Amino acid sequence: MTEVRVLSPAKVNLFLRILGERSDGYHEIQTLMQLVDLADEILLREAEAGIELHVAGLATDVPENEENLVWRAARLVLQQMGKGGGVSISLYKRIPVGGGLGGGSSNAAATLWGMRALLGLSIPMSQLKDWALLLGSDVPFFLTSGCALAEGRGEVLREVRLAPRWAVIIFPGFGISTKWAYKQKKFKLTKGERKYKNKLLPTVPSGEEIRQPYTNDLEEVVGEKYPLINDLKAALLDSGAKMALMSGSGSSVYGIFDDRERAKEAASHWRGRQGYLVHEGTTLDFNPIFGGGCSY
Predict the structure, then answer these.
(1) How many whole angstroms separate alpha carbon 79 and alpha carbon 101?
(2) Is 233 a catalytic residue?
(3) Which of 37, 40, 129, 138 is catalytic?
């Protein structure tokens, strides 16, 4: 193939629990992540040599060199396979940067998959996920079918199925550093208490209903500095959302609705406000990285 086009979806965290700090510098977490139909787009073309990356769309301060996970993912495949030649990559950003929606990690996973197809490689999925982990803790998730329970530092995955739901995602116009957010979280649990808390992992919904309000352990510390996060969450619940939560380390907040009309009404209330980005769509039970469709 001479070119490959891949959709790179965002995710939301249906819950996020931070259990403590690890000796390797990461955090022990439990989270349930699901893809949504907001997606970046990546076009890969064969080139004679080197890696060229061009970024457009919501591309403010997005690097076009080795600092970008897309560039590093492409280099990783070329190095691992001992391939000559190169690749030219165009990345169109629709997922806001610093919004807790996993755009960078999704881009890395999509690039791994796209390079596999572009170069006609027979790389097993298990190997691709191992490479994904070299790029970031949550990159392997974006090579799952669309919804997964993640533990460890995010690399221990158990895929589950949840029925698609209408979702409204609000990005308030500013990003939040994941590193900063985790640093604010204070851990007071003893080892025994942490082990007990591990047993409190909620039952994953079977697919028809989100049966309980999930929580994000970073909401409190992020909301202290950015009270708008709490305001957005409350506003979505007042608009009829069945649940509302900050995604990841923020700053995006999302609501899950029973029907499209309520979701559209909630989205219209915030759409058009200066600096805000609002997406109204659905959660996904498939992964568009593998060739599925995606609406905007």
Answers:
(1) 29
(2) no
(3) 138
- Is 11 catalytic? The answer is yes
Locus of tokens 């899950």: 256
Band the pLDDT of 187: cuts 50, 70, 90: low
Per-chain mean pLDDT for the chain: 89
For the segment(s) 3-160, the CATH number from 2.170.16.10, 3.50.50.60, 3.20.20.10, 3.30.230.10 is: 3.30.230.10
Annotated catalytic residue, options 11, 93, 129, 233:
11
- The pTM for the full model equals 0.91
> What count of Cα atoms within 13 Å lies in the side-chain half-sphere of residue 261?
0
Structure token pair of residue 140: 């392997």
Q: Collect all residues with Cβ–Cβ distance below 8 Å to 185 and sequence separation of at least 6.
A: 18, 27, 217, 218, 221
Q: How far apart are CA 192 and CA 14, in angstroms?
A: 26
